[in-house]
Amino acid sequence: MRKISLLGASGSIGVQTIEVIRQHNDQFELLAFSVGGNVKVAKELINEFSPLVVSVQTKEDCEALKLEYSSSNIRFVYGEEGLIEVATVKEADVLVNAVMGSVGLVPTLHAIECKKVIALANKETLVTAGHIVMEAARKHQVPILPVDSEHSAIYQCLQGEKEKNINTIILTASGGSFRDRTRDELIGVTREDALNHPNWSMGAKITIDSATMMNKGLEVIEAHWLFGIPYEDIQVVLHRESVVHSMVEFHDTSVIAQLGTPDMRVPIQYALTYPDRLPHPRGKRLNFMEMGKMHFEKMDFNRFRCLQYAYDAGKAGGTMTTVLNAANEVAVDAFLNGKIDFLTIETFIENAMSKHTIQMAPDLETIKEVDLDTRHYVRSLID
Ligand code: MG
Q1: DSSP classification of residue 102
Q2: CB–CB of 268/20 below 8 Å?
Q3: Ligand 1 centroid vs 174 CA: distance in angstroms?
Q4: Domain count of the chain?
Q5: 354 lies in some domain
Q6: Domain end residue (candidates: 128, 146, 164)
Q7: Alpha carbons 9 and 199: distance in angstroms, whole number
Q8: Residue 227 and residue 85 share a domain
Q9: CA 149 to centroid of ligand 1, rounded, Å
Q10: Do residues 131 and 72 share a domain?
Q11: Could you tell me if residue 161 is inside a domain?
């Protein structure tokens, strides 16, 4: 039995992680989870899995649950401390981190110290503090298994390969909901337009990130840290079908790709079973005859400016990726709440980055400070 703690159980990746656990309930056991403000989901999961620890966002929700389940042995916790408790629950082998945003960073670091295997869907953790997370993982000899489909693909392509033989990492991008629009056609697009992703069903924040191409930008930075590859050797290619989930080109010109139908349960399950594989009875198999063709196109960095900003931030290094991520989180939230236009997301990120003075090799305190300062600054632009 693999014993699992799950941060972000009510989000898109969390829900699909639960599906994987259910599908193989002879292999996996859910021991602890967090649900943010979604108490209804918490109750359903408590009744189904009888966990040891449950974390919610607020003290009020926590007290109410304690009262309702007073006859049980479940430990109810809340806030950032609650996330850390879920991440470090003694009996668990693996932490699935599926929360959204840099709030996932500190619990991940605590889980690494407790030697949990990390299945990481929370890319903001690596974007904002990749050097700290990877150093901690090395020090405590903890594997970081990617749950993001592209990085899972690369991880699979690299099995049995040596890092020194890699020439290029090629990340594929579906292009998001606005891939066929010009910049002029992006003026006045609505939240609903942006949330209508052609291939993948995901949470709101990541769907907007896909439409701005920031998601791919964050993934470039994530790949840099996970695989130790310089930014010059990470490429992005537009691939509408989302069938090739990413590729690795080696020095001998060989390219290894990982393919499949777009289904997040596959990379989730791979991270939970690695280096083994289990069947996926509800998965749809790839039919090459039906598919017939696949398409690959060059990325337009002028059209998708957030991708350029991400490369710029990554190459600049230090605290710049923290600024990129924090500015993006606040701007996307403002767009989702109808406070700013779609293209203003880009403008605010650019403003935050050009205003920032980089600090190299920042410690955790500096990162937290820069993260907060950037959020304040972008909020002041919104107001
Ligand atoms: Mg992805």
Answers
A1: G
A2: yes
A3: 10
A4: 2
A5: no
A6: 146
A7: 22
A8: no
A9: 5
A10: yes
A11: yes
320-336 and 305-316 helices cross at what angle (nearest 10)?
150
Q: What is the pLDDT of residues 80-122, one digit of tens each?
A: 999 999 999 999 999 999 999 999 999 999 999 999 999 999 9
Q: Are residues 187 and 50 in the same domain?
A: no
- Give distance in angstroms: CA of 210 to centre of ligand 1: 9
Q: Which amino acid would we find at residue 335?
A: F
Phi, psi of 114 (to 5 degrees): -85, 10
Decide if 274 is inside a domain. Answer: yes
In angstroms, the CA 62 to CA 320 distance is 36
Domain residues for the domain of 75 are 2-146
Ramachandran sector of residue 258 (left: φ over 0; alpha: ψ -120 to 50; beta: rest): beta
pLDDT in tens, 130-187: 999 999 999 999 999 999 999 999 999 999 999 999 999 999 999 998 999 999 999 9
CB 382 within 8 Å of CB 334 = yes
pTM: 0.96
207 alpha carbon – ligand 1 mean position (Å) = 10
138 and 177 in a common domain: no
